[in-house]
Design goal:
mainly alpha
C-alpha cells in the first residue's frame, strides 16, 4: 500500500484550533485518552476539518459546533 499526501485548508484548521482554545472542547471530551495515543486529538481535529469542508456550510457552523461557555 502506498501513502498519499492529504491536504487541508489552513483556515479550517485555524478555526478548529481557535474553537478548541476558546472552549477547551477536545481536552474535556477526550480527557481519559492518554498514553501512547498522543496523536489522537490532532487526528480528530483533522477529521473534523475534513467533515466541515466537505459537509457543513459555513452559515450552519454554529449549528454544528455551538458556543460552549467555559
Amino acid at each position: 500500500m502506498t501513502r498519499q499526501n492529504v491536504t487541508f485548508s489552513i483556515g479550517s484548521i485555524a478555526l478548529i484550533d481557535k474553537a478548541d482554545v476558546q472552549t477547551g472542547f477536545f481536552k474535556r471530551v477526550f480527557e481519559g485518552v492518554g498514553g501512547r495515543a498522543r496523536d489522537f486529538i490532532p487526528a480528530v481535529k483533522l477529521l473534523m476539518v475534513n467533515k466541515l469542508e466537505e459537509s457543513v456550510a459555513i452559515h450552519r457552523l454554529l449549528d454544528f459546533m455551538p458556543m460552549v461557555p467555559v
